[in-house]
Design goal:
This protein is mainly alpha-helical. It has one domain. The chain is built from six helices and two strands. The chain has a two-stranded antiparallel ribbon.
């Protein structure tokens, strides 16, 4: 992954676009890319799933750059910053960087 891609993800987080990133990764956003889903192998899919869990934790409990656990309704929920970083290093499988750029263009104005 290039430094540019990592900066795009970090910029999206700075702008508070966690919901948008989740939507892109789950296919529930206009910026989701079906081709990006189809290109994933089993390992990429696992990384995407852990990164998604981390983003969902961030959405509920706030930004988290270290591993944390929270007990809620009898469940232990955890952040996964190491997997999130690995997902970024793997090239953000499951999302299209060009569509992420379009999202950022629309939200940065």
């Amino acid at each position: 992954m290039s430094l540019v891609e990592e900066k795009l993800i970090d910029r999206a987080l700075e702008l508070g676009l966690v919901d948008d990133l989740i939507g892109m990764m789950t296919g529930e956003s206009q910026y989701a890319d079906e081709k990006a889903f189809k290109k994933m192998d089993m390992n990429s899919s696992r990384l995407r799933g852990m990164a998604l869990s981390h983003l969902q934790f961030m959405k509920k409990f706030g930004y988290c750059d270290e591993e944390k656990s929270v007990k809620e309704d009898g469940y232990i929920l955890s952040s996964y910053p190491e997997y999130f970083n690995a997902w970024k290093l793997a090239g953000c499988p499951g999302i299209s960087i060009s569509k992420l750029e379009k999202l950022l263009e629309g939200r940065s104005k």
